[in-house]
Amino acid sequence: MDCFYKQISIFLRLNLVFCLNLVSSFAALQRFEHPAKADGSLSFLVIGDWGREGFYNQSEVALQMGRIGQQLDIDFVVSTGDNFYDDGLKGVNDPAFQESFTKIYTSKSLQKPWYSVLGNHDYRGDAKAQLNPILRKIDSRWLCLRSFVLNTEIAEFFFVDTTPFVDMYFIDPEDHIYDWRGIYPRQSYLINLLKDLELALRESNANWKIVVGHHAIRSVSHHGDTPELIDQLLPMLEANDVDFYMNGHDHCLEHINCFDSRIQYLTSGAGSKAWRGDDKKHNHCAVHYFHDGQGFMSVQLNRTDASLVFYDVFGERRYHWNASRQLHSVM
């Protein structure tokens, strides 16, 4: 069976490469602007895999996010997907939107924009409901698109719809029904997405390039690495000097980097239900930190320095990492 999946995956990738040469026109990713602070700095929180109407410690994590958000005077929140469990939203009027979002993240510091992508669980419901601007009338913080670019002056964020890359959801969906409206034909969707992303990355002169997706590229937790992203997305990120790849999907906190790449892989998928003890304990890359409990991540940036912290469900700092880099030259 594994051999069958591998053959199908290779077939799809070969066809994708062939079709990339045939597609000559594409639309740019939608762009949003969010200015940095007056001093040129930026701070934000990253949370994923959270929407459970407050259960599985979601409310406790939200409380600590509010406390840290106030300390850091955050500018916004990044959501790495699987926003509503178990099967996304049923529609724009689904009470789960308010029960799992509006009524949970009530701290004053969290009344900032939430920039979100879809996860695989979101695709099991009405995926288009989360993309509908009607939700912004219910809660003005909410902004969710399949893929888009966020410019913050010192950093550009490239939000990527990773679920359609994963072969398993199409080949063997088990008992799940996915909402693929807007995705079929899948091959064309992925072709256009990759071309749009490559253009946006290539033209970016941001000091920091940050890509956000739901699925991990590198992980030592339950789901592990995502081969389709390693094959199709990772080469593009490396060729365009991406600094951070942030994701959810695995219900943990992780910092990984590989010896042959500058990219830092950061998993923040511990917004509610976590998987205690569910880790593979090995990876050919360097695992700097792994926490199999609930929590979230904070990031602070200026033009040359980055600081990230992982917090647990009690708001305790579990891991701190700093990075510096030279300014990008603008031609």
Automatic annotation (TrEMBL):
The keyword Iron applies. Residues 43-252 form the Calcineurin-like phosphoesterase domain. Its EC number is 3.1.3.2. Residues 1-27 form the signal peptide. It catalyses: a phosphate monoester + H2O = an alcohol + phosphate. Fe cation 2 binds at D82, N120, H214, H249. Pfam families: Metallophos (PF00149). The keyword Ubl conjugation does not apply. Keywords: Glycoprotein, Hydrolase, Iron, Metal-binding, Secreted, Signal, Zinc. Belongs to the metallophosphoesterase superfamily. Purple acid phosphatase family. This is Purple acid phosphatase. It comes from Actinidia chinensis var. chinensis (Chinese soft-hair kiwi).
